[in-house]
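Field: COMPLEX_INPUT
Field: COMPONENT_COUNT = two
Field: RESIDUE_TOTAL = 801
Field: MODE = joint
Values follow.
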Amino acid sequence: MLSRIADSLFWIARYMERAEGTARILDVNYHMMLEQSNQPYRLRWDPLVIIAGEHERFFSLYQGATSYTVLDFLGFRQENPNSIVKCISNARENARTIRDRISRDMWEDLNGLFHEVSRYCVAEVIATGPHRFCNLIKFGTHRFHGVTDATLPHDEGWQFLQAGRALERAGMTARIVDVQYHNLVEGPLSEPDNHQWMAVLKSVAAYEYYRRQYRARIEPEKVAELLLLHGLHPCSIRFNIAALQEALRAVSGTGHGTYANEAERRTGKLLDTLVYDRIEDVLSRGLHAFLTDLQRTCGAIGEDIARTYFYYPVAE
Amino acid sequence: MSALLDGYDPGDFYDEMLATQGKPRPHYAKLYTRLSEMTPAQLNERRQLADLSFLLQGITFTVYSDDRGTERLFPFDLVPRILPRSEWQLLERGLSQRVIALNMFLQDVYGPQRILRERKIPRSLVLSCSHFRREVVGLQVPRGIHIHIAGIDLVRDSKTAEYLVLEDNLRTPSGVSYVLENRLVMTRTFPRLFHRYEVLPVTQYPIELLEILRTLSPRTGKRSTLVLLTPGIHNSAYFEHSFLAQQMGIELVEGRDLVVDSDTVYMKTIRGLTRVDVIYRRIDDDFLDPLVMRADSLLGVPGLIGAARAGNVALVNAVGNGVADDKAICAFVPDIIRYYLGEHPILRSVETYVCSEPAQLRYVLDHLEDLVVKSVGESGGYGMLIGPIASRASIAQFRDRLRIDPRNYVAQPVVSLSRCPCYDPDSGGLAGRHVDLRPYCLYDGEKVTIVPGGLTRVALRPGSLVVNSSQGGGSKDTWVLKGEE
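Field: COMPLEX_OUTPUT
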């Protein structure tokens, strides 16, 4: 497989995942905020921008964080390389450069989603509420993954899609939790904190699961445990790092107990921590420090993958 | 008569459908009946269905210098163009003859140059051609094939009903993907009509091309690597590149995916370098190899020509074919056919005045208002003057250009192109629009294989004679019948 094609597949998955994550966060927070609008305390829009890792760019474009500016920025703004519309368009552009290598169904599905998304604008989404738009993205990306699973041979190209998706998802969950970390304090949760944590769970589609699993009030430690260390829920960081490891091993053909390249070494080491550490261990070291480290590692793994499979040093 | 055909007037043109007002030609009879049964609303509904299908499949092309975004649908007209078998067989014979003779011409020009020494064609005309490539003189191309793929533009003259060659495209002719996609959409939108006719299939084209590519590999006995080299996603024909690569099951590569080491071409894969044997390149000669051609090209591969010269890689089409489809050389193709094959040319060309010949230039300058003037190296409908409809200013401008650089121009009389019925969005009914025909010819060194039909391009603007996609043209599915009707 051409390196450029593997690279594109990896990034199609990352962009789709990024679009989906952003749509979920927007959707949940927007509606949460509406519910709370009559309360004395104020929920704030700026954490959403921080989750996207775009704090500086945002404030260079807008005066402040309001429902309009945040929706515009995260949803539509061309200057934001991670806005939903931009992600879908990047994914589609990548697919266009390799459309001979993906299934016709995948292309038609993604191309259709792109054209559908292009019909929306921020004013309209504000007017009718962002739910429909966010749902379009959410189910659009799910459908794309489904179409991919059903029509693309599960060969090394498919593995690069899986790797991209898992890596992006792990990073997204890490950012969502990290932004809320300051709420992780001793003592009972305040009412707004409680709502924020519910929003977090809902934005990664884990709210109902949490209720069933823990049968308890929202407790930050338990939320952190679910989102970081759970072995089976597809939103958890551990789940995704394990999926990443599986995909990387499938590409290189490496068995258990060893590694073929730097990306696999780093992934394995990180997975060890996520499997064998308990949430108390993580919290005692400081959640913020842990998540910062983890995001840095995810970034490094992405670079390792590129160095191993995508880039050729310039020949003399 | 239904509203769809109300007011349909063949006019003073050869109408492909009607022999005379209200009377269809035998091979159009079934279509004519079907159209008579349909209402404009029904046709429009199918038209929207077809458009949506193209949009969703992303079958688009890029228009340069259009700021409305890079992609546009290539307008598709639902009414098929139909050719009876006998008419097609004549074209097939004529096109085969032409391709074989032009290939011999290229072997000669880049080899012994017999035709120049014997002065059958002016040496200066050939050597001054901007597409003549000194860099590949003496390069032995695999199996002696220069023209693997040719797209030859034919028009039908309304005055004589005869097919004439308008121009040859021997470098990187495009459009064949539309032939295949148009057919697919047609069979979906008009299944019953399609069934009532016996239409020769077109889907075999990619397989036939693949077979030719395979035979060119310099490595025998091994599993060779065939690739299609594209300039990338911003090229106007990108969809086609990707489509053909997929249909042939070969790798679609860009220049940056390839590297040349010791005169051998490799592609960069996730498992290291893999040797490449045959390159169906859709990059112009100029951009192919910055070491030999344009040094500023970022699209090509440094060292590619060296690898071809060493016989380690086959390039399809060969480098330098532009000398044979130069519009001034086109005027000499009948001589070329007679010289190499000793045969009488089966297809006539549109009469062409070569402006580098002083007497012909004088005639052209005196008759600019009646002629079409074309730049010899351009394609896609760029850089031309259509005398009868041109403004005085642009005629004056061309007069100057012709005097300064006569070698760069040819002129042709305005051919009154035949017309086909097309959907007219203004009236909601059908109206006659001018068409041409570009068949795609594949040459394997022994015989020429031609996809039955080819791309019918249509000038969708009322009265327009320009069929190029970049100039408001569209296309139609072209049906060659198994029999006469």
